[in-house]
Amino acid sequence: MTIHVSPDAHPTLVLNADYRPLSYYPLSLWSWQDAIKAVFLDRVNIVAEYDFNVHSPSTQMRLPSVVALRTYVRSSRNPVFTRFNLFLRDQFRCQYCGTATELTFDHVIPRSKGGLTTWDNVVAACSPCNLRKSNKLPEMAKMWPNQQPFMPSMEVLLRNGQKFPPNYLHESWVDFLYWDSELEP
Hints:
four-stranded mixed β-sheet; 21% strand; disordered C terminus
């Protein structure tokens, strides 16, 4: 019996020109089609390959499992305020009770009291804590976040992303990824 494996089962890890991932969380991956296109446009160097070939009528090649950009891409210094980046900053934990379930976000100074939706006023909160705090100020609710909200740097988000390795890591990627257990104290 022959098992047919789809090329879609072979994502490509994308490294910057310095051989570090563009991002850890989410891990910088391209589809096999995007990787092949970048190879043919000479935008990347192939670092490692799968033992899997794709072919057209005129050519055949192994799918890249790791590529490095030829040109260094400088990351933005200020991350965009998104729900995901907020949760990543707060390490996917409620800033009131520490749980990692039912996460929402909470305005420390409620919007009804003039609080803005900014890095300096929003924290990750589980649904029960968010409901309990409601639209009260921390002093009124007797609830203070475990850490003051702040605008994280890209380095903070990258470091926090290293604490959450994805479920799947191809063996050819391991030498380029540095997860929490391997980080220096």
